[in-house]
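tl;dr need the bound structure. longer version: we got a ligand (pyridoxal-5'-phosphate) that a collaborator sent over and nobodys looked at where it sits. i said id run it. heres the input, straight from their email, havent touched it
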Amino acid sequence: MHACQDSAGSNPQTNMRPLQMVDTKTQYLKIKQEVDAAVISVMESSQFIGGKVLNDFAIHLAEYNGSKHVIPCANGTDALQIAMMALGLKAGDEVITPSFTYIATVEVAALLGIKPIFVEVDKQTFCLDPKAVEQAITPKTKAIIPVHLYGQAANMEAIMDIANRHQLFVIEDNAQAIGNDYTFSNGTIKKTGSIGHIGCTSFYPSKNLGAFGDGGAIFTDDDALADQLRMIASHGQSKRYYHDVVGCNSRLDALQAAILDIKLTHLDEYIVARRKAADFYDKAFSGHAKIEVPFRDNNNKHVFHQYTLIINDANRDELSQFLTEQGVPNMIYYPVPAHRQKMFDAFGGSDFNLPTTDWLTERVISLPIHTELDEEQQQFICNKVLSFLE
Ligand SMILES: *Cc1c(COP(=O)(O)O)cnc(C)c1O
């Protein structure tokens, strides 16, 4: 997934702009003046850590997300780790997570000695299957960690209901879905990342709200939890040089905050551009016998961090290779599900039997999607996919 710059060679027979999985450069050039001025201003102030720029960004992000507190941190992986530490999760506890996800979600649990209990995802949404979650609960379970994969929200209404009934914490991994509006059956609308006890996100450059380096943030409405999260992210200190708990050092720097503060004002238009690109692909592919276009659940508004197809009755790996040869970047997110990673051998990863996860892992393929795709590029991509699958 960390392949944000893998551009394919430009095509000799057209003047088409080169295809890339993500085009952060063109996106930057459109806001260059604003961004450059903000970066220079931070450099002239020499306030590189903390300070007003960072605090302003945290306030703006909290407003955007409808969360009471935002704790900026160094990256999305740290955000998840700090969340688990702040909730008091410890070695021997269990957390319920999908296996069909990016490794960071579960790696930090293992790092803390917490056992990841891998459960199935829903075949349509690619996100945690609430029925599987309920079945996996044991007396050791402390938290559920739904991942809003590819930009689509997990079934948060069902997950919150299960968590409330069993008194479990919910940590949302919102690294891929910032800006998604989730609607509950009573009509309440909330942003993903503001629904669970804690939400986590990443500002990795290729994410929908991407920094020019690493960054992350933690969301919560709970005042006491916010204090705890802030303390853990800052060497466990309640007051400078007074360290109450074992923490870590996880900061978002002011340069990244300045850039993100500007990009946040564009996030909604970026999401619109991603949805428009997804609509174009949907139109080209829907109804094709061998292609399943991304499902759009009516309880949330997909933000298309990825545009991921399911390929049926054709060799997905051969399609991927063909596209690469034809100059169409494409990715398999993710080629090995978490429970089958060597990393989890010691946690009994291979004991889990997850046929839906395996089924999806063999069939998914992600096409270029970002804010700067034009129709000529998309038509070229669609033609190549369709020519292989005929
Ligand atoms: C990107 C990502 C993370 C980790 O974020 P980093 O900033 O790269 O540490 C965690 N979970 C998911 C689902 C992600 O996509």
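gonna send this back to them w/ a short note. The two ends are 28 Å apart (CA to CA).
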